[in-house]
Amino acid sequence: MSATVRPEEAEQIVQVARDFAAEHLVPHAAARDAASRFDREVVARLGELGFLGMLVPEAYDGLGLDTVTYLRALEEIAAGDASVAVSMAVHNSLPSQMLLRHGTEAQKARWLKPMARGEQLGAFALSEAEAGTDAASLRAQAVRDGDGWVLNGAKAWVSNGGTADLVLAMVRTDREGERRGARGIGCFVVPTDAPGYVVGKAEDKMGLRASNTSAVFFQDLRLSADHLLGEPAEGFIYALQALDAGRLGIAAQACGIARAALDHARRYAAERRQFGRPIAAFEAVQFKLADMATRLEAARSLLHEAGRRKDAADAATRWAAMAKLFASETAMWVTTQAVQVFGGYGFMRDYPVERLMRDAKATEIYEGVSEIQRVVIARELLSST
Questions:
Q1: Run of H or E including 20
Q2: How far is CA 162 from CA 38, 77, 151, 236, in A?
Q3: Using CA atoms, how far apart are residues 124 and 241, in angstroms rounded to an integer?
Q4: Nearest CA to 149 among 230, 226, 222, 229?
Q5: What pTM value is reported for the model?
Q6: Are 85 and 119 in contact (CB under 8 A)?
């Protein structure tokens, strides 16, 4: 369970994130998006601030923060540049948490500590080209070779896949002809400088274009036994557990995107004049802004409640799914309204709301599409009846 920081400390951490976003992210976000340029230096600066080890206990060189403080800081980063927030969120919520929860002390010293210090960037590889929503049907294979393993196969849509230092990869450990479904998958810590780790071309995406997303290939990639995380047949279960934290991170990103869109729309409405007065004077625009603000506050409140429940281990899966579902759909709705407030200018890449609308769409898709979140929520509700 994460430690709860004092309110004044939490505010200081959030303010650091806000200042960092204003100074280092906002001025160059559009240029990074246009060039599809991942900026490792910016991510390294996040590491120097401790923002790549926010949920890792101090014993492993992290900040040991509670989930809500982390989510608030992540929202600030996402409001500055959602692409940068992807690296921060994936690193904090998936590989770091899996190592913390299931790693040996030797594995934590070797990998978790440098990750928490920001010296190594982590990634998470579950999906494959034919195993997206049905992730348990993945085909990448690990075969025992003496005391170690040999990995072959391909993983798809890996955030940080071409830029990370290590990837936690879900790979089959059962044998052909003796498949065990979700209970036949292991989790391996794969250093990206290992021979046989091959990065495919970076995906040309609609949004989050400054975040690296790539296919990765394992070609006779040899790993010693200490690269296996936990039990050899439990990797898929570990991944599902980590996705609760991952979905909260996406919800925080969605809130940051929506907040940035609202801020831009509010300022533009006050400046843009039509019929001799600012368009903010028209009730139609006022009502849009009011609805945007209301939905954003509702999404943020749900997210923070989900974060508190995660730390308390209270129905965390259901609440994470609800927060991700509602915040992502809110971000898509709010950014669409922001484009409408801007009118024709909102459709142009010279204005930021066009980029925010593209970025928002990704939050409805990755780490479980909205339809899957509804399945998870319904399943959790019905299982308690």
A1: helix 7-20
A2: 10, 22, 18, 23
A3: 13
A4: 222
A5: 0.95
A6: no
Euclidean distance between CA atoms 280 and 269, whole angstroms: 5
Neighbours of 138 (CB within 10 A): 27
Buried b (16+ CB within 10 A) or exposed e, 319-357: bbbbbbbbbbbbbbbbbbbbbebbeeebeeeebbbbbbb
Q: How many other β-carbons are positioned within 10 Å of the β-carbon of residue 257?
A: 36
Residue by residue, pLDDT tens for the chain (385 residues) are 456 678 899 999 999 999 999 999 999 999 999 999 999 999 999 999 999 999 999 999 999 999 999 999 999 999 999 999 999 999 999 999 999 999 999 999 999 999 999 999 999 999 999 887 888 889 999 999 999 999 999 999 999 999 999 999 999 999 887 878 788 999 999 999 999 999 999 999 999 999 999 999 999 999 999 999 999 999 999 999 999 999 999 999 999 999 999 999 999 999 999 999 999 999 999 999 999 999 999 999 999 999 999 999 888 999 999 999 999 999 999 999 999 999 999 999 999 999 999 999 999 999 889 999 999 999 999 997 6
Residue type, 90: V
For residue 104, give every residue at least 6 positions away whose Cβ sits within 8 Å of its Cβ, in sequence order, or none: 226
Catalytic residue among 75, 234, 364, 367: 367
Give CA–CA dist 164/10, Å, rounded.
Answer: 28
CB 127 within 8 A of CB 154: no
**Residue 274 tokens, joined:** 């039509």
Residues 55 and 51: their CA atoms lie apart, in Å, by: 9
In the chain, the amino acid numbered 331 is A
Name the phi and psi angles at 191, rounded to 5: -65, 135
Cα four-point dihedral sign 33, 158, 242, 94: negative
- In angstroms, rounded to a whole number, what is the distance separating the alpha carbons of residues 317 and 294? 25
Question: Active site includes 367?
Answer: yes
The whole-angstrom separation of Cα 32 and Cα 193 is 26
Query: What span, in angstroms and rounded, lies between the C-alpha atoms of 164 and 162?
Result: 6
The closest of 151, 93, 82, 154 to 122, measured between CA atoms, is 93
How many residues are recorded in the chain? 385
Question: Rounded CA gap, 38 and 156, in Å?
Answer: 18
